[in-house]
């Protein structure tokens, strides 16, 4: 049971990536981004709003930081992923997002004054080689000639945005309870999504897109974080963090089964190198020296 809950969370987040692709042509990216977090906000409000209101004086000094976290972790991360889904397969999206833990560790060097280790640098090189192979679809000269596609670039920026979110959560150490802090971030992120929502060509809710919005809002944004945090309590930060590597695997399985996507050799090679590099970067000597970074990655994976 201790393993089941966080594994179920990773499965929900993998399914959320598939929902990104299913939303293409069904609902505008800006609309589903807003409706997703609005749904999560409404669901969490009965329990968390009274608690947040009681803590309003403690929250007020930290509002600028909470607003920045809402921008990075909710607004930018999810919006970029929805836009990228128009040109990137769910399988590739899942593999690109798999670089997030490594980006988190790399960003921790300048932000948290952490020191890189030789094993981490080797792991980073291997992971980015796998990412290059994935982006080039196995043809590296084409990547040099044509560059990175717009959708792939958006996914990289989404991964980078969330990695920065992870590091800032650890850097700022906002003295608020986890769920109350998350609620305020969701509130801020939802507010920031209003302008692009109002500018979207279509914001209509239909019988085709309502199930996608409800899954993203209820399961990916509300249920999965609770399951993940329960896993953190039962297993600890380091053991739970390893389970995040299941997300690209589950994404590929669901994309093949539900979307009919084809798993190509470059997916296997690029994804394998990415995960190998992450494994080397998280090897025990690295975790001992960068324990704080690993814990930051684990605790904030809840918003994927």
TrEMBL record:
One of its GO terms (cellular component) is plasma membrane. InterPro entries: Diverse_Substrate_Transporter, EamA_dom, EmrE-like. It is found in: Cell membrane. The chain crosses the membrane at residues 37-54, 66-85, 91-112, 119-138, 153-170, 182-204, 210-229, 241-259, 265-283. The keyword Lyase does not apply. It is a multi-pass membrane protein. The keyword Cell cycle does not apply. It comes from the Bacteria. Residues 4-135, 151-280 form the EamA domain. Keywords: Cell membrane, Membrane, Transmembrane, Transmembrane helix. This is EamA family transporter. It comes from Pseudomonas laurylsulfativorans.
């Amino acid at each position: 049971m201790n393993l089941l809950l966080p594994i179920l969370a990773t499965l929900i987040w993998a399914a959320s990536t598939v929902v990104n692709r299913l939303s293409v042509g069904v609902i505008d990216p800006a609309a589903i981004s807003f409706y997703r977090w609005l749904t999560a906000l409404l669901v969490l409000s009965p329990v968390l709003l009274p608690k947040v209101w009681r803590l309003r004086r403690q929250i007020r000094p930290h509002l600028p930081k909470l607003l920045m976290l809402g921008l990075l972790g909710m607004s930018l991360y999810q919006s970029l992923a929805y836009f990228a889904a128009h040109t990137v397969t769910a399988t590739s999206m899942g593999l690109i997002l798999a670089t997030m833990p490594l980006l988190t560790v790399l960003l921790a060097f300048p932000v948290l004054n952490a020191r890189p280790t030789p094993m981490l640098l080797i792991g980073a090189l291997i992971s980015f080689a796998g990412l290059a192979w994935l982006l080039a679809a196995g043809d590296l000269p084409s990547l040099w000639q044509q560059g990175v596609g717009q959708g792939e670039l958006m996914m990289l920026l989404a991964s980078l945005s969330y990695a920065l979110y992870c590091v800032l959560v650890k850097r700022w150490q906002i003295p608020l309870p986890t769920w109350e802090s998350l609620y305020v971030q969701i509130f801020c992120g939802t507010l920031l999504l209003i302008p692009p929502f109002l500018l979207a060509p279509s914001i209509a809710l239909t019988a085709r897109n309502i199930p996608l919005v409800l899954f993203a809002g209820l399961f990916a944004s509300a249920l999965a974080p609770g399951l993940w945090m329960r896993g953190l309590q039962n297993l600890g930060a380091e053991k739970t963090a390893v389970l995040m590597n299941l997300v690209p695997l589950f994404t590929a399985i669901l994309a093949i089964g539900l979307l009919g996507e084809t798993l190509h050799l470059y997916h296997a090679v690029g994804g394998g190198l990415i995960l190998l590099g992450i494994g080397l970067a998280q090897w025990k000597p690295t975790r001992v020296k960068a324990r704080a970074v690993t814990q930051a990655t684990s605790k904030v994976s809840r918003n994927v």
